[in-house]
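Extended Data, panel c. Modelled sequence:
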Amino acid sequence: MSVDTAAETTAEALVRELFGLMRGLKGLHNALPPGHGFKLEGPAYGVLWAIAERGAVRPSALAEHLCLDLSTVSRHLSSLTAAGYLARETDPVDKRAHLIRVSPAGEALLAAEHRARIDGVSALVSDFSEAERKRFLRSLVRFNANLDNRRRQYAEAVGSEEGRNKA
């Protein structure tokens, strides 16, 4: 595919490299020898991490925070609860609802999983200078903020359109 401008060429390369990043992370995870992998798959780790960051949370609020549908989050919550990594408690504000929190076993697992992921990322950037690591981090932080802002803009636009269509 040919492009006319340097900006398009850069955007095209970014698309290719972002796809390569996703594929590479999954491939690396799949290639780990037995006993060297993570106990939790990435999505389950993300759910556990989000609950640990936010504290006790309703499943619906967690789904919204993670930009996932409630059924997907519920499947993760069920498996993590069955494994003893999460605990349910009654919502003190609405006794009909429940909150999910990380159990002590979940906190221990999360600490070990987090350390393993830090070690893995450290190995991947071990040939970067400290300045390169910091520049890479700043770029990722900015990119993730742009993603979040764009998602909000789309959600607001869809909400506005749905409101107009219902009127």
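Helices lie at 6-31, 42-54, 59-66, 70-82, 104-124, 130-166. This feature is highlighted in the accompanying rendering.
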